[in-house]
Structure formats: structure tokens, C-alpha cells
Write a sequence for this structure.
């Protein structure tokens, strides 16, 4: 067959999303956690664009566009926060930033 | 379908052969131009007027010892020149050199492919080119390389902003992102070129594009990150032989891309300055015939003794090319390529002229220049263009 | 042909995504994430989303990930050191994730039977013209709101990351 079923794209999106969740939950370096969040956002973008193809409307593309824009703003602010935390705590391990723990 | 593949393969081979030869000889042209600006002869000994100098340089670079320092991050160290070179060579795929022509019965465009997002493709490939330099600086495990790589990448992404805004302004006038249609909408005469046409002549956009183009390709006056006497040559200090040559070739290929985009967006691409029925097809004949006559004249009264043999040969070659331009069967594809090369060559000459003339910016001056001056001017330019296009239709 | 392109780039995307999660050094994870984004851009082209594909490469792979790479280089983040891993979290978490993936894949297969399929040219309204038209008419309010959001992001990032004036 020369055509790809839509469900394959959605399955790929699910696989990437689950990999993003795995990175978010299991990794300890804050930058890798952040990159897993970006991976999850990309997976969601893929499913938005796939649904837009299936429903033959352009609205899914617009949603993906806004997700990209918000991800850019979030990355900028998040990395600035990471820089500040690193300046104060000298560590990038999220387990070591626990001074407010009981 | 089969003929399409064969024709495309032939086009790919032709375009890349011409591109790689141009890359090698662009370096010769640059060295000659800068030499003559500095009142010295430039490469002169290797072949007639140094024309075999690029061949000698290529042989030297290939046969140099190719070492990999033991303290580098090997995968990234080896991948960085590949990324830089690939992203530098990709944009030539969408650049149109002429209109549709008939070759042996098949009608084809003088362009490898036309994307309806051609301008965005070139911008995308340019933003991916930053990785080659950043990874080269990081993987070399050397503080000078790291500083040079970070500075160079920060400069490139900062100047992408005025570049994109300067590209957006003529797109408001031409209403298309496809490079083929962009040139077709500037057909006619010189008054139809985007730089002179429309409710707001795009002179300011052209200047902003050129300045941002200088910074994107790390050329003088913005070449602090790779200057030889600062930062010990910057991000490519740990590279030798062919990997160093690929960074060099990537820089020249980026220059060619920026000049081609300036030609397509602002100067009308492959369109002649005035229509062919008023004699613009005789301009190349005149130029080459004049060059041939001058070369023959200087061949008879040479300044150096070896010119007595080489200059008359050049003269005859130029006169032959001038006669070649008169043949009607080649004019369909030769004239548009000629005009495209003349315009791109003028912009490239401007690049080299500026390199020979201006001193370089300090890094904080460079970044202050883009964020505090060039970016607001680009935004105001886009606003003015948009307002005038909406008001005057 | 469409199938070949999908399989190749989906494979590259999944391999690079696994690499993002598995690699210890952040810079390898960052480069693998760039690989994921570029292969997703090719898949967007297959779905007729040409503007989104270009925006993905320009914005996501060419700007956001460059920002990540800069921060990793500036912080000189080394390879992650494993210590104090909670074994119960791993023993419980991994099967649950696999169960989540299985559930999602099962529902996808049930809801979208094989009749709908993707081929080049199946959706031609992803051009910049259509996106621009929708962006400035239907989605004008989200557009303006995200513009202000980015402005807030810029100001916040500059304030957070500047040096303290003594």
C-alpha cells in the first residue's frame, strides 16, 4: 500500500508523548526534564496537525502554531529561572533543590 | 515520470558542479579584489594571474594531515563541519536562475525545485546553520573555540531578526513566498524591481538585508568571532585540512545564498533591466567584447613579460564569449543566467569591497547595533511598508 | 513512497526521542531533540502543513533549541550523576507508562479505522495564505494575547537573567 493510515500518525504521537513523560518522571537533571516537556509538546503538535488533516480544516495548524509560540515563551522564562537557580544553588539536580522540604 | 527524474538529475549535477567551482573561484576573486584595493597584485604566480591558486589551495588542504585532537567530543566534532556544509549548500536548491526553457523537447524550469514556501525554506536552513558553528565551538574543548562559537552563534541568531523583517517587507509587495513567482512578479523593466517598485520603494529593506547578511555570514565588519588576530581564529581553531576547508566553503556558500536572495527579493532576479526589444540582449555582448579588446590592447603593451602570452589569450576568449552571446539558440537560457550572475556578482563584489575597506566591530558594539538600532529600524520599515500597501492598494 | 517516507522519519523520530530520555549528557539529549523536531517537520510536510513545517524548523529547532544549547554550554552542564534513585518509582513507573501507551494506541486504532489515509496532496489548505487568513480573522484575539505573552516572556527572561547591579 502506498498510503499511510491516520491512526499511525496518532500512534507515533502517543509514543513520543509517553517517551516525554518517561523523561520527565525519571530524569534528574533539570535541563533534561525541560527537554522532555518540549518533546511532549511536539507530540501534541503532531496530533493537532493530524486531526486537522482528517477534518480538512486549518484550525489544527493554528493550534499547533500557538503551542509553538507559547513553548518559546515558556522556554525563555524557564531557562532564565534555571540560570538563576544554578547561580544560587550551584547544582542542576532537581533532588538537591529541596530546602523547603520538611 | 522517468524523464522528469533524468532531467532533474542532470540539473542537479550541473547546478552543483557550477556551484562548487564558483565556491573555489570566489576565493580567488576575493583575494584579487582585496589585493587591488590594497594596491598589490594578489595571487599572481600560480597559473596566469593566479587562476590556478584555488586548485593549489585545494590540493594543499586535501593533503594536509587530518588530525583529531584526543580531548575533543568526537561525534559532535566530526558532525559540525557536515552540518555547516549541508546547511550552506541546501538553499541553492530553490534559487531560480531563469525562466522555463525547452531542452531537447522537454520543458523545464531553470531551478532545481520550486517550493511554495521557498523564502521560509531558506530562512529555516539558515537558522539550522547556527548549529554547525555552535557545536564546533563546544566540541573543540578549547576556551577560545567555545567563546568564538558562542559569540558567532549569538551574533547569527540576533541578526536573523532584522533579516526576517527585511525579507517580510518586499513580500508584502510581491504577495508570494515562492521564489519563482517572486521573480515573475518583478518582470518588465527596472522600475518593476522590488527595490524601486510599489508604494514604498524597498531601498531601506535592501540595506537592512545586506547589513544583516554581512552579520549572518560572519563577514567584515562583523567577523570578530572568526578573526585571525582575535580569539585565535575562533571556533575553527582545532580543525585542520578538509574539515577546516568545509567551514571555509560553508562561509562562501552562505555568501552566495545571501547575495542570491538579495537579487531575487530586491533586484529582480534573472529579469533584464530593460526589455529585450530595446536591446538589453546586446549588453553582455558589449561587455565581453570590450573586455576582449582591453585585454588584447594590454597584451600588446604588457606591464610584465609573461602577460605578453597570457593576456592575448584572455582577449580572444572574451571575444569568443561575446560572439557566443549573439547566437539566438542559446539566448533563451544564457541571457537570464547572465543577468542573475551579474546582479549576484555585484552584491558579492560589495561583500568583498566592504571587507577591504571597513574595520571590524567590537562584540558589544555589534550586539548593541542590532538590538538597539537595526531591529527597531526594521520594524518601522515593515510598519511603513504595510501601512502604505494597505492604504494605496 | 509515502509509506517509505513515513516509516523512515517516524523511526528516526522515535530513536532520537529514546536518545533524549536515555543519554546522560544534556548536549546529546539536545541534539537528539533537534533530530526529533526535524523529522516531525518532514511528517508535517506529508500532512500538507507546509507553513507549520517551516515554522517548526525556524522557531522550534532553529531558535528554541539553540537557546537550550546555549544554556547547556554556558552552565557547562556535565553528565548526570546517578545517585539516590528510588527503585520503587522505577518498578512502578515503567509498567504504568507502557500501560498508558498501550491504552492510547488501542483507542487510536479503535476510533480511526483504516479508511482514512494520508497521502501527499490530500490537504492543500495549509499554505501561509490560509494560515494568515485564519490567524487574523478567526484567531485574532489569541494572536494578540500570545504577542503580549511573548513580550512578558522577554521582559521576564531579561530581568531574571541579568547581573545584579552593585
Amino acid at each position: 500500500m502506498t498510503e499511510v493510515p491516520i491512526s499511525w500518525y496518532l500512534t507515533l504521537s502517543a509514543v513520543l508523548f509517553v517517551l516525554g513523560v518517561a523523561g520527565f518522571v525519571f530524569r534528574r537533571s533539570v535541563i533534561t526534564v525541560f527537554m522532555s516537556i518540549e518533546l511532549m509538546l511536539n507530540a501534541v503538535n503532531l496530533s493537532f496537525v493530524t486531526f486537522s488533516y482528517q477534518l480538512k480544516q486549518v484550525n489544527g495548524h493554528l493550534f499547533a502554531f500557538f503551542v509553538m509560540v507559547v513553548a518559546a515563551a515558556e522556554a525563555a522564562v524557564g531557562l532564565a529561572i534555571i540560570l538563576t537557580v544554578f547561580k544560587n544553588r550551584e547544582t542542576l539536580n532537581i533532588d538537591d533543590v529541596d530546602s523547603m522540604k520538611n | 515520470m522517468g524523464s522528469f527524474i533524468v532531467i532533474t538529475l542532470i540539473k542537479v549535477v550541473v547546478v552543483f558542479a557550477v556551484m562548487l567551482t564558483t565556491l573555489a573561484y570566489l576565493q580567488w576573486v576575493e583575494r584579487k579584489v582585496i589585493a587591488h584595493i590594497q594596491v598589490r597584485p594578489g595571487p599572481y604566480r600560480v597559473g596566469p594571474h593566479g587562476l590556478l591558486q584555488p586548485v593549489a589551495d585545494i590540493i594543499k588542504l586535501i593533503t594536509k594531515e587530518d588530525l583529531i585532537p584526543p580531548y575533543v567530543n568526537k561525534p559532535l566534532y566530526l558532525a559540525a563541519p557536515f552540518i555547516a556544509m549541508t546547511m550552506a549548500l541546501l538553499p541553492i536548491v530553490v534559487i531560480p536562475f531563469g525562466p522555463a526553457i525547452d531542452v531537447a523537447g522537454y520543458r523545464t524550469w531553470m531551478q532545481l525545485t520550486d517550493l511554495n514556501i521557498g523564502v521560509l525554506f531558506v530562512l529555516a536552513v539558515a537558522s539550522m546553520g547556527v548549529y554547525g558553528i555552535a557545536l564546533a565551538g563546544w566540541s573543540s574543548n578549547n576556551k577560545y573555540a567555545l567563546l568564538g562559537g558562542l559569540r558567532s552563534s549569538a551574533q547569527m541568531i540576533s541578526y536573523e531578526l532584522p533579516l526576517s523583517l527585511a525579507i517580510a517587507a518586499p513580500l508584502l509587495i510581491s504577495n508570494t513566498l515562492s521564489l519563482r513567482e517572486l521573480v515573475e512578479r518583478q518582470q518588465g523593466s527596472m522600475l518593476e524591481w522590488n527595490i524601486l517598485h510599489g508604494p514604498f520603494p524597498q531601498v531601506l529593506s535592501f540595506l537592512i538585508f545586506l547589513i544583516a547578511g554581512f552579520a549572518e555570514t560572519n563577514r567584515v565588519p562583523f567577523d570578530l568571532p572568526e578573526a585571525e588576530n582575535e580569539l585565535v581564529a575562533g571556533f575553527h581553531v582545532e580543525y585542520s585540512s578538509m574539515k577546516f576547508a568545509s567551514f571555509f566553503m560553508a562561509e562562501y556558500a552562505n555568501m552566495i545564498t545571501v547575495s542570491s536572495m538579495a537579487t531575487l527579493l530586491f533586484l529582480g532576479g534573472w529579469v533584464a533591466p530593460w526589455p529585450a526589444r530595446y536591446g538589453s540582449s546586446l549588453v553582455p555582448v558589449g561587455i565581453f567584447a570590450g573586455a576582449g579588446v582591453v585585454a588584447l590592447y594590454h597584451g600588446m603593451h604588457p606591464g610584465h613579460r609573461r602577460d605578453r602570452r597570457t593576456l592575448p589569450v584572455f582577449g580572444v576568449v572574451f571575444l569568443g564569449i561575446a560572439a557566443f552571446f549573439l547566437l539566438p539558440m542559446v539566448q533563451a537560457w544564457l541571457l537570464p543566467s547572465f543577468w542573475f550572475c551579474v546582479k549576484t556578482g555585484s552584491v558579492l563584489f560589495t561583500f568583498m569591497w566592504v571587507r577591504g575597506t571597513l574595520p571590524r566591530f567590537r562584540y558589544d558594539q555589534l550586539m548593541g547595533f542590532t538590538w538597539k538600532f537595526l531591529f527597531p529600524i526594521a520594524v518601522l520599515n515593515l510598519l511603513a511598508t504595510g501601512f502604505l500597501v494597505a492604504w494605496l492598494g | 513512497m509515502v509509506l517509505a517516507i513515513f516509516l523512515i522519519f517516524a523511526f528516526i523520530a522515535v530513536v532520537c526521542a529514546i536518545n533524549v530520555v536515555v543519554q546522560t549528557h544534556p548536549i546529546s539529549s539536545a541534539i537528539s531533540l533537534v533530530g526529533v523536531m526535524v523529522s516531525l517537520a518532514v511528517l508535517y510536510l506529508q500532512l500538507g502543513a507546509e507553513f507549520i513545517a517551516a515554522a517548526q524548523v525556524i522557531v522550534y529547532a532553529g531558535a528554541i533549541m539553540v537557546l537550550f544549547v546555549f544554556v547547556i554550554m554556558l552552565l557547562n552542564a556535565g553528565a548526570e550523576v546517578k545517585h539516590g534513585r528510588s527503585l520503587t518509582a522505577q518498578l512502578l513507573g515503567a509498567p504504568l507508562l507502557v500501560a498508558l501507551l498501550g491504552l492510547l494506541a488501542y483507542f487510536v486504532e479503535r476510533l480511526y479505522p483504516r479508511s482514512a489515509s494520508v497521502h501527499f496532496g490530500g490537504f492543500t489548505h495549509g499554505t501561509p495564505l490560509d494560515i494568515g487568513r485564519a490567524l487574523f480573522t478567526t484567531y485574532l484575539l489569541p494572536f494578540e494575547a500570545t504577542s503580549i505573552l511573548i513580550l512578558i516572556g522577554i521582559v521576564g527572561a531579561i530581568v531574571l537573567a541579568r547581573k545584579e547591579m552593585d
Summary: Chain C has two domains: 1-78, 127-166.
